[in-house]
Amino acid sequence: MMSDWSHEIVLAASILSWFIIGAGLAQTTIYLLQLIIAAYALSRRPPVARSALLWHRYGDVAPPIALLVPAYNEEVNVVESVHSMLALEYPNFEVIVINDGSKDHTLQRLIEAFKLVKFRRPYEEALAHEPIRGLYSSPMTERLFVVDKENGGKADAQNAGINVCRAPLFCVIDGDSILEPDALMRAAQPFIDDPERTIAVGGTIRIANGSRIEAGRVREIHLSNRLLPLLQVVEYLRAFLMARLAWSRINTLMLVSGAFGMFRRTEVVAVGGFTKGSMGEDLDLVIKLHRHMRDAGRKYRIQFIPEPVCWTEAPETLGVLARQRTRWQRGALECFFRYRSMLFNPRYGRVGFLGFGHILVVDVLGPVAEVLGYILIPAFWLLGILSTEYLLAFTSLIFTYGVCVSVCSLVLEEAELQRFPRARDLAVLTAVAVIENFGYRQLNNFWRVKGWWQYLRGNQGWGEMTRTGLTGAKK
Amino acid sequence: MWYIWDLSILLSALSLVIMLFLIARRVLQERRGRAQIDQRRQLHTALIAFTENRDREALKVVLLAVPAGVAIDAGFEFISLLRGEEYDDVLAAFDECGLPALVGKQLEKGNSAERMHAAEMLAALRSENAVASLLSALDRDRSREVRIAAAIALCDLGSLPPLDIALGKVGVAGQRSRRLIELFRRFPPARFEELRDHAARTDAIPFIRAAAIDALAHAAGFHFADFFARATGDQSPEVAAAALRALGLTGHAEAPAILASAMANGDWDVRAAAADAAGRLGLAGLAAPLSALMDDEAWTVRYAAANALRSFGQPGERLLRDIAASEVSRSQRTASLILAEGPAA
């Protein structure tokens, strides 16, 4: 009787181990595939180094762009952010700041700094959003408009901005982020080269912690001297330079970051804009765009290009980072289950198989399988249920392949883009790319499992994102 | 299972070795970079001195002393600031130092970003072999962006092949690029007829035909008004809308009838372009169809119609006020919004 039980336990343990190792293998295979495609994509489209050249080349034919900046309780940074946005190098753009019912003095700061006056501007009420209390324009610059509305969340504010803007393209950016001066020109390039098919373009988000920032510009790029932002630098590099570039190359890009993305207004309006209350409103919008264009049988491109850069502040404490990561996980799960009918659906081609397959393996199953593996695989090995080779296979999938993927992302960055100014930075990041697999990766997966749990319990809160602000001196 | 472990060790070790190599390469680049900054500064000083003393020999000494890449980049940047005789003198010095030949080589052997830049530089350097190199790039380059850059450079040098041939070489995919609008805007007046012929071709890509019409409207004006009037009835909404916009710039004796008919078109882009053109031309006689368009299902059309009425001055504003005071409807709402536009009271 006892021997029957032990046989079944061994069988169950083996099946579970195979599931865990299989999930890890699938994830690793996807990453390696992405690395190869990203390397190919970068070699096919080398970056243009000087922005003056871009202006010379595209300045006359660049389409008008509206920069939409939702702001909620941003009184500390908003004026400097808007100044830096107004100074962007692009021939035809307007900045629309949407004050989303801030409880602090965000609107007052803007009114004072830009001498704003109430203004009436007819607009199409194409998307639903909370009521607008007033529109403001500035006698100091015709490029700036401020929309003051009742609080409805980021997606709601962005929808109000989309309604008010008149440009055929709009660019969403977080109020506390900093765009490189040539970022709009670089991001608009696919809309110039292929205006009929391009409907969305994402650029790179980089971490500004540690860099010297003056007057809303990143003047000197430095790495942070704190470990947590450094770990996120490598993480972002992997996410943007590897994953997004690769999927963009095969037109399967599922995420254009809400912190910096450019969209064609007509298509976004056609899909109903950003989904209000969504935890991952950026992912949600891109999935809707894919579905809309595929359902309509239209040819389209959703692209990621690495050169346009938006700087953001990374969380510096574990508590804030944990909240951010659990929220991202809930966003991914929410979108996956909301649009689950697209998964492996031949009607949606590569998007259904690769794009959704990626979310399934990396975001839905990945964290659960990996955290289970941390506990069960060593336990099974200690109990003698699993042989050493299983333990080593799992260890390699968690640690050594992780090192390879992170370091290879850095290799791609250095071989093609060289955006870190000093050799010392590269050496530091190489070390970080190795050590992030020993502790940080596991912590991250724990937060993602926590996100799963919150999703199952229906927790819809955003959690507080404490920021110290990008303005001011080097931190 | 062992192979998963072995492969992981091999791959991660390999990635670390490559990274270490790249770090070492970067150390060397940093040293070279500092030297290049000095060389650029040296060249800029020599170029500035040349514009004052025209000592070509002294400039040539410096040009030949710095690496070719530095000379090409800094030189191109500098000549974009010059005009007239100074420009020609610097070009002659560049030519004598063989810089255009080096740029020609870059057009053949660089990566796609470098090849595009080389095409632009060749147009600026105006060397003897520039046309041959650019024609070869237009003919053979595998990147459509480079082929378009070569076509624009050839146009600047007055050596663009016949338009149909040039567009054929750019390729069908390249014929969707807004860069071609720039090419058309640079067309010499002597070749406007060619643009018109292409815009009239019903088998050509609508985007390109529309771009050609826009370029003609801005550059040639009333000379092609008859053609624009005919093109307003084109099957393609994109072409018809472009022709209506063009008509709005040039005017035409038949414009009122043409615009009135276009305002009833099934495509909203055409209706909006017609309303916009009526406003530009100040055709107050079209107030009735414009008022009807203010009930259009597309906001863009309603807005264009209301703006057109407003541009007619007092009679138009009066009409808008009447509509705004009427029963609640789409027209009434649009009129109210347009009348309210501007600083709040």
Automatic annotation (TrEMBL), chain B:
One of its GO terms (molecular function) is oxidoreductase activity. InterPro entries: ARM-like (IPR011989), ARM-type_fold (IPR016024), PBS_lyase_HEAT (IPR004155). This is HEAT repeat domain-containing protein. It comes from Mesorhizobium jarvisii.
